[in-house]
Amino acid sequence: DDNITRQEAAIFLAKAFEATGTTSDLYTDDAKIASWAKDFVYAAKAAGLMNGDTNGTFRPTSTLTRAEAASAMVNAVDN
User: What does the pLDDT read at residue 13?
Assistant: First the structure.
């Protein structure tokens, strides 16, 4: 029943959709992404499952909103 963070969601999505790619295009708040989540965050980004904000941040410890979850699911179906 707990909320999940954006970096936790990236792990779930990357694993569920077997996203293994990466990108050299880092988020501006890259240093705030936990080391245990970083590979999954960038795999989700490379696969087009999750995106950052318009200012280039990922907000790794922010709670995933319903709208963001829905967007990730649409992105997964479109890929």
Answer: 93
Cα angle value 61/40/19 (rounded, 5°): 140
Check if the beta carbon of residue 50 is closer than 8 Å to that of residue 75. yes
Distance CA 6, CA 58 (A): 8
Q: Convert the pLDDT of each residue in 4-42 to its tens digit.
A: 999 999 999 999 999 989 999 999 999 999 999 999 999
Write the DSSP assignment of 37-73 as a string of letters: THHHHHHHHHTTS----TTS---TTSBPPHHHHHHHH
Q: What is the pTM of this model?
A: 0.91
